[in-house]
Amino acid sequence: MSGQGRAEGIVIAIDGPSGSGKSSTAKGVAKARDWRYLDTGAMYRAITWWMVSNQIDVTDAAAVAQAASRPVITMGTDPSAPTVQVDGTDVAQAIRTDEVTGNVSAVSAVPEVRERLVARQREIIAEECAAVGGIVVEGRDITTVVAPDAPVKLFLTASAEARAQRRSKEVHSSDVAATQAALARRDKLDSSRAVSPLTQTADATELDTTGLSLDEVVGLVVKLADEAQTRGL
Ligand SMILES: Nc1ncnc2c1ncn2[C@@H]1O[C@H](COP(=O)(O)OP(=O)(O)O)[C@@H](O)[C@H]1O
Ligand SMILES: Nc1ccn([C@H]2C[C@H](O)[C@@H](COP(=O)(O)OP(=O)(O)O)O2)c(=O)n1
């Protein structure tokens, strides 16, 4: 797609498994350079929330496909205050429940859902690049499908233990083993689905964040972004 080069703004594409640090890193980089931030996982969570709220059987791919175009999802891309709305309702909290988290991989595996959300994500990228000159986009298929020509492509990783520790701390849970099992289940589903699975490609830079602080990771990514801009990408 166009819109990823310097003339129209820079795209920083970040993929990786749950808890690797995508959201916090993407927000930090966008803030550091006054760019926008797009949390594509929040879009899949939002459509899942709508399906569950409207009694759509999320295990029935045909039913999910048929309903996929009904909810209107609106994203706010300010990295200091990102927002997500469905049909005008703020769902920032509602999309983080265990019910949504448990069903989001099934909904994300439906091609019609992905087709619709990827199209919207590309529109947002083009709009924000034209408006402010850059956007940091994070998810599972950003480096491979949504913005494969992005000048900076990153695959964030961290050990399963570190990811579970971080997530447990975030949700104030002492059951790190249960958190690790839930993450492993979702990672497996997201990496093995037929359409746009989470994949690490050779042209994406791997960044293992296990032993790094968030500030260190943000600093490394800002450096890569600055280098790409200097090279004129
Ligand atoms: N490098 C890091 N070191 C320590 N904690 C981190 C690091 N990166 C992220 N975190 C923390 O880990 C948790 C999960 O990070 P998040 O950015 O939501 O990951 P993801 O978007 O990949 O699921 C958050 O509480 C975040 O503050
Ligand atoms: N580009 C994307 C982003 C997320 N998804 C799906 C798969 C993920 O399990 C869910 C939720 O993503 P989210 O980034 O919120 O996940 P985390 O809990 O932050 O790890 O959405 C996707 O299929 N494609």
From TrEMBL:
Its main location: cytoplasm. It is found in: Cytoplasm. Residues 12-225 form the Cytidylate kinase domain. The keyword Thylakoid does not apply. It catalyses: dCMP + ATP = dCDP + ADP; CMP + ATP = CDP + ADP. Its EC number is 2.7.4.25. InterPro entries: Cytidylate_kin, Cytidylate_kinase_dom, P-loop_NTPase. CDD domains: CMPK. It is an enzyme of class 2 (transferase). Belongs to the cytidylate kinase family. Type 1 subfamily. This is Cytidylate kinase. It comes from Nocardiopsis ansamitocini. The gene is cmk.
